[in-house]
Amino acid sequence: MAGNVTSLFRGTAAHSPSMAALTRESGDGSGPVDFCIPCNPYFPTPAMFDEMAARLRDIVTYYPSGADTITAELCGLLQLPPQCVAMGNGSTELITWIDHLLVRESLAVPVPTFGRWTDQPMETGKRVDMFPLQEAGGFALDLAQYAEFIRARGTRTVVICNPNNPDGGYARKHALVQFMDAMADRDLVVIDESFLEFADAEAEPSVVQEAMLRPNVIVLRSLGKNFGLHGIRFGYLVANPALAGRVRSMLPKWNLNSFAEYVVFMLKEHGAEYAQSLAQVRRDRLEMASRLSELPGLTVYPSQGNFLFVRLPVGAEGTVVRDRLLTEHRILVRECGNKIGSSSRFLRLVVRPQVDVRRLVSGLEQVLYGTSRRGAAVPELGNGTSYSSGTAAVDRLVSATNGVGLAAVSGAAALSAPAASAGPAVSQPLPQAVPAPAPVPTPMPTPVPQPVPVPTPTPMPTPAPAPAPQPMPAAAGLTPPGVPARGGLTAAQVRGTNGLTPAPATGWPTPGSWPNAAGMDQAG
């Protein structure tokens, strides 16, 4: 596998090769330890897999029931009215239909986030207004600043992932409900709760019940992630009957497969095991964060998902770390250099059992420090933050339009001028106290004073009468919160932003409180 690792990653349309491709490449029929795909490792139980295996012939031979039958069973389990639910072949199918049916000219989303929320609207010519989450604030989402940004841009559709992917940031329920009501004049508000089952910050974190009562809110939920069955491809959305019915009417007759049907009908007998699996993932998350935090120079961000977002030490380049972990240690990780708003210094690591975490920590120690603690094998590249979605069409859109969609291709020349000024900002700021393993040439001076006195560039249509304090002087070409850049926030600006007012890191884990597992823990 060693000679083909880079080509495997470059040759896939997704962010990483599939497990099937990696298994084929291994030569021995076994895949790596997977810290890349965010999957529940404790569910289904071995007994459930045995039961599915015994029925495999029937499952793959015959047509499934219609989506209405499968949806009704799921709704009975989750205590939701079927007319408010639409089930899809994975949440990405539902995102696609939401974009085609309900998104008009523009969509706002905090970045970094799940790539389909940026790529899908751009593929259909929409303007994507990207709100940068601040590394200095732990990538926490400031809902008030986000609302200002949306109004300044005039965005019609609003998206929040809660918890966010890849950083696991969490917004509390009461704040989200207030935000939804503040956005009542927008066309659509989507709250993507794909990873909410793993959160433990509140007992009842979901806004599903509130969404059904509002005319313009959709909540998106994933089943594959929670149930450890990504390959089955099933998810659902919840909204008022009119919105849910509009999406449901466009879905194909048999868009859900027989495996999905079989699993949904199994669930009522396995509620207790499912609730136990979620509790175990939450315990593992705390243990894994503790172990990773012991690595010198590695920053671990608070997370409410089943994954942890980490920043590598200065001098480490994520693609090199990813490739060496795979070839030398048979460990697959998610390098985040192709996520808008992130860079190659960041990895997303899925929460796994402690035996696997020990193997990961050992591999990272050897790759990052070696036997002599000499630092990462390759210095961080100056252009390591360049965006590549893995989809050629989207790459062309981003480079040609700075993320404002197909409609702006003809005006790309006009947009290129503001983007050019953001060049120097692509480097990541140095962490405060990193025991630098060895001096590594880096494009930035080491101790940088906190407020960088850079003259503010060309006039921007700023001042709202601001009672709030003005943000710190930003690097050239960056856009302060709530102020639209000419032609929209560019991908280069999003990647390089680091001078804005840090958002308060609220809503982090509080041990001892556990969410309702979507009604599952009531079953057993």
Automatic annotation (TrEMBL):
The record's keywords, sorted A to Z, are: Aminotransferase, Pyridoxal phosphate, Transferase
The EC category is: transferase
Which cofactors is this protein said to need?
Answer: pyridoxal 5'-phosphate
The UniProt regions of compositional bias labelled Low complexity, in chain numbering, are 501-511
Region ranges (Disordered): 437-524
Q: Does the keyword Transferase apply?
A: yes
* EC numbers for this chain: 2.6.1.9
Q: Where is the Aminotransferase class I/classII large domain?
A: 74-362
Q: Which GO terms describe its molecular function?
A: histidinol-phosphate transaminase activity
Protein name as catalogued: Histidinol-phosphate transaminase
